[in-house]
């Protein structure tokens, strides 16, 4: 009786040692899969926003002017650019 229990325990330990690395690797891969899915969702949202901005840049003249003024510092003929520098405290 004791001999059978010993062999059963030995078999259980052997199976545990064999399958534990595979199980932990599977859990790591599942977590990585979840992380990648959330990254994909964030990138899809960002892509949608960028596509809307690209459409605006092609079709909307007011948006083109806004981008040119804010990002590129372009002014119309006759305008004087003014740069406001905050004072140090």
Describe this structure in words.
With 89 residues, the protein is mainly alpha-helical. The protein has helices at 2-59, 61-72. The termini are far apart. The model has no long low-confidence stretch (mean pLDDT 87).
What is the secondary structure topology, with strand pairs?
Layout: H1 2-59, H2 61-72
Helix pairs in contact: 1-2
| Major sheet size, sense and barrel closure | none
Helix content: over 70%
Structural class by helix and strand composition: mainly alpha
Number of helices: 2
Mean pLDDT: 87
Report the portion of residues in β strands.
Answer: under 5%
Instruction: Tell me the Rg in angstroms.
Output: 32 Å
Helix/strand order: HH
Cα separation of the termini: 85 Å
Overall geometry comes to: rod-shaped
Low-confidence stretches: none
Per DSSP E runs of 2 or more residues, the count of β-strands stands at 0
Oligomer: single chain
Put the structure in a nutshell.
The protein has about 90 residues and is mainly alpha-helical. The chain is built from two helices and no strands.
Features:
mainly alpha, 89 residues
């Amino acid at each position: 009786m004791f001999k059978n229990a010993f062999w059963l325990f030995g078999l259980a330990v052997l199976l545990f040692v064999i399958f534990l690395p595979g199980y932990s690797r599977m859990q790591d891969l599942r977590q990585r899969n979840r992380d990648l899915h959330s990254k994909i969702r964030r990138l899809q949202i960002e892509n949608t926003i960028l596509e809307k901005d690209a459409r605006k840049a092609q079709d909307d003249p007011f948006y083109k002017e806004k981008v040119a003024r804010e990002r590129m510092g372009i002014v119309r003929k006759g305008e004087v650019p003014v740069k406001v520098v905050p004072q140090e405290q």
